[in-house]
Queue: 4 jobs
Job 1
Amino acid sequence: MANEAVLGSMWNALVWQQVAALLCLLAVLLKATQIYLSKKRQERILEQFPGPPRHWLLGNVDQIRRDGKDLDLLVNWTQSHGGAYPVWFGNFSSFLFLTHPDYAKVIFGREEPKSSLSYNFLVPWIGNGLLVLTGPKWFQHRRLLTPGFHYDVLKPYVKLISKCTTDMLDNWEKRITKQKTVELFQHVSLMTLDSIMKCAFSYESNCQKDSDNAYIKAVFDLSYLANLRLRCFPYHNDTIFYLSPHGYRFRQACKITHEHTDKVIQQRKESMKHEKELEKIQQKRHLDFLDILLFARDEKGHGLSDEDLRAEVDTFMFEGHDTTASGISWILYCMAKYPEHQQKCREEIKEVLGDRQTMEWEDLGKIPYTNMCIKESLRIYPPVPGVARMLRNPVTFFDGRSIPAGTLVGLSIYAIHKNPAVWEDPEVFNPLRFTPENSANRHSHAFVPFAAGPRNCIGQNFAMNEMKIAVALTLNRFHLAADLENPPILIPQLVLKSKNGIHVHLNKVQ
């Protein structure tokens, strides 16, 4: 009887193993069928948009070499296939890339959510803030945060940004006696981080002098690791990334930044217990972004939760320093590359500043040629080279072609800015494209460095002010020359960077 019981138990175990194996096989077959049907659906949708030929397994990935030419590849495909064409990442996932302003205008004019594939990797760091929110909650946060970018709030920031820029330039002045060139992005990124902490949170980070600070290192780590995860396909899987050394490093960095953010918010809340009115706070110091967040109330009188507060602070830290650092670095590179325009800007700046070494609010509107050079640099080197959307509703374009809800759309800002059907001689650096007359006659969505429509960059005025200040004070003090032996190699990450850095020669203006 005992043997029969053992045999029965073994038989039952074997049956259950076979059932489990069968269920696993069915699950795999079901998943494979779903992937196959999804692929066929995408092919049916996109067959109306001719695009580049793709590899049977890799899609178009094998054509993207990551050698600084993949962005220009989008421009080349635009000339071959028009302003809307599919790009396949592998043979089962595709984006409809839009590279002409007529197509971009349709998508930018809608409140379509950001593509989860592009932005979800940031959520453990920045939370569900304005960058990734959708629907009514996005609209609520957008409305609550908009007062934080009113010119009355931005005005006091000019002196703070001037001080941070001056600290950076003082550091450069010490360095140029010891080294041949300066790598811009590293220093500019610390400066913009310093600025954002002082302006938006009234917080003295001291990061330009103490770049080994744990919080500063964590912010840089998170930017690097988020980009790494986006570019490394196996890391798209949460489990694989979680178990990897990079995943552990990412979680540790998130912990440091969240603890820092929570500390800043709590300190401000404690200080506000004794200063409940905005007027009293403004008498002691400038009104900042964090004040706006803490005082923000919706129509029902509800403020932001602690979780939402942290998300918006971390989102602003990410968007407010990395994108602006990219913009300033590439603008200064253009100034170094085109000395005739650099000199015209310098003459204009010196006429405005005279003997002063800092910028005032009123100065920002008195440097029109410098402003045109900044815009032309943003056209050639947009800080955010592209954005992605997932359609919630069907879209019909101006040419009658339609795509259904669920379609992934990539808007290549870089390719729109380089589209020869829109811009004459797009590779030529020509600031006169941005005279008032030329700007008035241009397509409304031909120049979109801050995106466009309801989901445009809420902080674009802050960013433009910081760019003007940083460029003006730099040119007022230094002559810049490009390092011809080490030209930058473009790499499109979350922001536009250079694989080998952005190196320039600096000489003190006499």
Job 2
Amino acid sequence: MDNLNNTFSCNKYIAQGKSHKKNNMPCQDYCDYYVDVDNEFSIIALSDGAGSCKYSHYGSELLVKKIILFFQNNYKILFEKEIDDIKAKIIEYLSKSFEEKAKEKSIEEKELSATLLFVGCYKDKFIYGHIGDGIICCDIDGNLKVVSGGVGGEFKNETIFFRKNIDKKYFNLSIKPLKNILSFYCFSDGLEPVLISNKGDKLAPILQTFSLWVYKYEHNFVNKNLSHNINDIAESNPNIHDDLSLIIMNINNSNTEKIRETKERIIDPLAIKIEESYDELNKQFEEKISYLDKKIENQSNDISDLFKSIKDIENQNLELKKYIEKLSSDLGNINKNSESQINNFATQNKNNINSLQNTINDLSKRITNIEKSQSDLQKELYSIKPYIQKDIDKVSKSFSDGFKDIIKKTDDIKADLKNNSSNVDLKKKNNNYLIFIPICGIQIINLILLIIMLLSKS
């Protein structure tokens, strides 16, 4: 076949086994694929972690990713090398990866133990590699054939796993022609009970159905139907307990297309079912379209009214929008004026408050001075009170003595008058009385003025 026209299409399926679900263990199977952007090279790879190793799920993922990366970077030269040389390079590369992963996880390297299956296609050749159990098979000229049934150990039923620096004799690797091959398949031992018989290595035809789906349908459709079919098979088979994994690679060209088209109606019951379903759906679709056409025709007036109502609502919304914009503008002006008035009021009040505070401060000072003056006057009044008291006592005594003398003189005058004394003597005596009276009056006036002066100061 003309390899220059080859294209590749791949898909995969992975599921946790019944026993792993029951024992809350991670899925230890892993598979993946790579197709070169120019459809020049493609590789599929699958690995099944050792059930006895706690971290084998890390190992299976690592082996698949690393072998794909190794071929992705070296496929153009690998297909020209000797088998033993290719084995040595792969073992060295994967052993180093195991060592780094074990150091990263702080675990022993043997805890990463897992099987390895891969198939790579380049130009008119394919290369496959196999360590441990599982199946590599292909569809050649429309017939299923086992490519590699696994590599056992020294003892019967002993499973080999990839470990650091594994002996090359446990690594099955070969390069062969790609002629007339439609598809390659790799699957783990979990699917062996249903995909391959114990007698004659007969493979289940459903594998060809799966590869036809990969060829014909969208990726998501294939994923959904692969999961649905394999899950049903696994659930109904009491011999399936382990994890399940399957990966498919189709080689597409003019020759393989003819073979697939010939067998499509035979091996793809799903296609028949889909075609029947499509006819039924198409009929239902036409009926619904007819019904909707009539309904639209009957309701054309209602639709017209509806459009009119929508237009009215749009106009109302426009008016409301304008009104809201005006309100917003007015509110902005109000806020601006209010802010200005508040600032002016605050400024005026601040000046009034300052003036009032100054007046209060002045009054407080004056009250303090008055209180001080009152205190000083009180002290002065207390200090002169004894002297005033002495003057009062002195004046009182003078008054008392004066009045006594006046009474005595009066009595003497009366006696003289009675005895008919001469007028000269009477006049002389009267002059003495007149001199005494002014002196007493002056002393009284001085005392009154002193008291008034003191009271006015207090």
Job 3
Amino acid sequence: MAVVFALFVSGAALNYLGLNYSGDESVSGLKVHPYVVFTLIGVLVFGVSFGTRQSKMSDRRFVTPVFCSALVIGVLIFKSMGSGRQSLGFAVDTLVSALWAASIVPFLNERMARRVWKMGFVFVIVECTMAIIEVFTKIEFIPIDTWYGSYFRATALHGHPLNNALVLVTVAVSLQLSATKKASVVIFLLTIGALSAFGARGALAVYLITNAVWFVRYGLQSVRRLPFVMTGVPVGVAILSWVLLSGAFGDRIANVGAYDDSSGVRLQSIQMLQSISWGNLIVGTDPDQILRIMENANVSVIENFLVAYIFMFGLACTLLLFLCFWTSAKVLARRWSSGSGGSIYLIFMVFFATAMTNNSLVTKTPALYLCVVFSWASAYIRNEHKRTGWHAMLAEDRLHIVSSANT
């Protein structure tokens, strides 16, 4: 249920229904997303002994992410106190819930992993179809109060186009790592179309580079595959060039190489760090001072989540947050062999590379939560494929040996 809500019921949808999920008004409404509630219930179930079920509090796979979540909550409480308190309500849904998910998924079985994978595949189909239909009809299914100038950008399931892009790339890359070749091609084509509809140039670049590396690596694994790759590369480049430059799936992507206001804001976001003292750089900056710096730079939004975190939390606490997630990912990956466990690190690398191109992680988003869940599901399924493949090979060898002996 938590994954269903995280995938298909976005904060934008809750706002559209009048539940004031991400609004600043102090009126009644849903301020914590249902997927966070379901995940917290899961943590409590695993953490408490009842009946024949034993508590997981003695298991490192459970304790480490829970302890890291406690550290993150401590950072949030510390930074929200005092006269220069920060507005950090987003962080429970965006950061803490992901660590809670990391404490639960190691104890789930293959059936659950495959069920999560199927839900992710359905999400990619629904999300991408909505985005492509929106860009052709110029009608948003879940409209949001954001203006994009002369460009139309799809909002699909998750509201803001860049938030959609981050969620989609995370899920798509995870699915492709454990998908069949045909399913991976379908995911790739749909994702390219949707990212173009979102106008997410940074996410599109990260996604294309990731798939290009996979494609070349696939070709180098066999002499038979190499001609296929050598033929496929120019054909693929030609098709992608037409999709991107023709504006068929979004006029903004046709200017993919242009240095516009959006590109300038990303550079200005980094340059603004030079406006604060070393003390503020280490411990964080007062919100009023951040607003003054943004006004002086004529920047309305800091389009880089890492820069925004350094402003809000300071370099010391930002490093602590990254250490918490790195440690949890390391514990999550330790269960499997280097190939399957390494996929978790790869998914996180693609996730953070995509996240660096926008500020989605400074808002309420299930992106990091889904990164944890789907990296686990992908690693689990990859590991099962390797194990069953190895057993099948051993069985074939045994059959050959027995046949030879009988002969």
Job 4
Amino acid sequence: MKVVAYERSVQGTGASRRLRITGKTPGVIYGGTEAPQAIELDHNALFHALRKEAFHSSILDIEIAGKSQKALLRDYQMHPFKPLVLHIDFQRVDAKQKIHVKVPLHFVNAEIAPAVKLGGALISHIATEIEVSCLPADLPEFIQVDLGKIEVGHSVHVKDIPLPKGVALVSHLEQENPVVANARVPSAKAEVETAAPAAAPAAAPAAKEEKK
């Protein structure tokens, strides 16, 4: 995905404010063997790019002064209540060095899962992304999670997800194998189903009295 940026010579809070007034967004690109470089981008183009999933999880081609640099989106700041991008950070990547990136999850086949078709359960997406490690060339835009076999009361964990070749899961000590999706029957429905069998025996004595 290509991103056009321009060199930014003036820095500081006042300069950034003036830049935003002209429809530009200040930013920086850092990492690698080169020094951090202050840049500016067209705000409208950037705002629309941020709404695309691939912009957040793909290797970007940042073109500055006719030269292209491979980079990842690392951070951006939005105005508290205005649709305004205040600042954006990119990190250069080396084709030979592994990167840690959060990749979005795409859930499929929930509608045919036994939990839904037979159990009337609802499937909740507990996580929408996972962190992986890989070389830039192996970075997937998303990772697919197949929910077609999930049953009521069961969950899908991170380690249950097949990963593309060259991609490894980045584990965190606080939660080694977190849940990404689960299937649960809504509490109101579960209460009704539990109470229904109890109502049947109560009708028996009444029928016996009528017979007398």
